């Protein structure tokens, strides 16, 4: 028989779970503190400029497709997906590397930088594809309950790849520092340094070079709109501006929530808010993980973000642009080893209006600037300004154009906003990193060990950070609820 289920939050994982649970016949309601759904993936619209506030890289299109297929739908029922060509550009201090939309082009670019490098590249990507097939079809679809989930015929024969790092694997095959940075970039999405990330995670390189970079016309928020429409069509009730203040527990079992002061009863509670925050909604005795536990985890970075409207079209840029003209190692140390504001940050900029006219007024450009920083850093208006000045000057020099006098407006978002908008632990942007010791069954659990009928989903639990993993997380927790809550 269907249960009543209260879901906290409306990010990708919560929306995904809500669809699977409603499809299974449960009576599902979402309670979201903000005025719009989507969590970290909300949208900012200003004077005809459209910004995705959070995620902008659409990778692993197969996972999005599988999600909608599970409901007899396709992505194309909801949005138009275009493959970006080129996928992106990387600016180094003395050179630009352009990543094309298929392997032959990418190999040519590698050969231009380092003669003979296309051969090891093809081998590396072919192994990355093998990892992708194992990870996506075998490993990632497990709920992270037992270590034995990781033991498959395929993983046992490749166990060394969990203990070698992506960094050592890349350096074994490539000598040119620019190619090394190019190949280490994709695993940054997993939230840790490449030297802390198992080489098995090279499946991200296959996602990058093998599957390509895509763009939903209108921006990433189109996916959220699609999932909201799907959820509502399945009967999910979505309540926005509805802050959850407490998870109620009776006789060791979750019995509902208090939202905007109102007591709401349900058979099951599922939280898609940041795991750490979700546990603070419980009395101390019901929390599974101590403050010391969270303190010891490796968190993915926070970010300083700028959403900028330009009154002209910019030149020599692509939809996605990485600025790797400073030392990657030093910046990484400032994020993970010795948390502080980086002196010479690497940064990333996207201009969705380069390929999608709907995202800026005619003759204008929508610009999103991102500097990854350590979570928990001091965040002041002065620091934000100081860093904007640094990166906009570097942007002008590296792209050979003046743009500062063409800025119509600029909004920023940083650590304090991540905390106030999303109740994010230390203002993290991308959740908890996927290191060897924070993989699968070693991550915070989908089901509470202390409170019956209480579950968690999202980027701090399995499988990890990113939009595709969040979609999978929602599916995994829904399957677990269906199994456990008879
Ligand atoms: C700047 C940035 C760039 C990124 N870039 C990419 C990218 O390019 N590609 C990619 O794949 N991933 C990217 N990511 C990661 C991706 O966005 C996240 O992994 C994903 O959106 C996380 O979804 P979630 O379901 O875990 O939670 P969230 O999106 O964090 O949703 C949690 C929700 O819970 C709500 N909530 C919190 N507390 C309460 C409460 N007490 N009551 C009610 N509601 C509450 C919050 O308001 C929020 O809506 C990026 C993230 C950021 C921030």
From TrEMBL:
InterPro entries hit by this protein: Amino_oxidase (IPR002937), Carotenoid/retinoid_OxRdtase (IPR014105), FAD/NAD-bd_sf (IPR036188)
Domain Amine oxidase: 15-481
Keyword Repeat (UniProt): no
Keywords: Carotenoid biosynthesis, Oxidoreductase
Ranges annotated as spanning the membrane: none
PROSITE patterns to which the protein is assigned, alphabetical: PROKAR_LIPOPROTEIN
Pathway: Carotenoid biosynthesis
Short name of one Pfam family: Amino_oxidase
Gene3D superfamilies according to UniProt: FAD/NAD(P)-binding domain
Family: Belongs to the carotenoid/retinoid oxidoreductase family.
Stated name of the protein: Phytoene desaturase
